[in-house]
Amino acid sequence: MKRNEFQLRVNFGDTDAAGIVYYPNYFKWFDIAGHQFFRSIGLSPSKLMKEQNIILPLLDVGCTFEHPLYYDDIITIRTVVTEVNRKTIKLKHEVFRGETRTGHGFELRGWVKEKNGNIFAVPIPDEVRRILEEEGLGNCHQTNPWLSA
């Protein structure tokens, strides 16, 4: 299945009073990773909306926390498609600091059409299914000046 990864730096605002990453940030990072993933395979959510009125709403999410993260840690988020159903896509996310996995989870997203103010799930087109089910990385060339600051 298609996969992607990218890095980011933990910001001070991502931490709690003890200096440990506040848990909701994992869900924020999963959302960012999901959007980055779709961009990396040529299915930019904004482009899908503009050109096809397709949105990718979050239907379910979960996370398991394994090790704490701290301010200034550089993390890698690895995303892979684990399921492509008729109208949903499941993504698995893993967060690493170096070689240590600090947490993992999933997002279940719908393939949903917006028309005249109404939204409804529609079948995922075969060409999209083929892209999602291909092995390999998306185009994930990331240049992030914040990582070397």
- Give the CATH class: Alpha Beta
**Cα-based radius of gyration, to the nearest Å:** 16 Å
Q: Helix content range of the residues, please?
A: 10-25%
CATH superfamily: Hotdog Thioesterase
Describe the largest sheet: 6 strands, mixed
Per DSSP E runs of 2 or more residues, the count of β-strands stands at 9
Count of discrete structural domains: 1
| Known CATH architecture | Roll
User: Helix and strand succession?
Assistant: EHHEEEEEEEHE
Total helical segments = 3
End-to-end Cα distance, whole Å, is: 34 Å
Low-confidence stretches: none
User: What general form does the structure show?
Assistant: globular
The whole-number mean of residue pLDDT values reads: 92
Strand content: 35-45%
The strand line-up of the biggest sheet is 3-6-5-4-1-9
Pfam families: 4HBT_2 (PF13279)
Keywords: Hydrolase
GO molecular function, one term: fatty acyl-CoA hydrolase activity
Family: Belongs to the 4-hydroxybenzoyl-CoA thioesterase family.
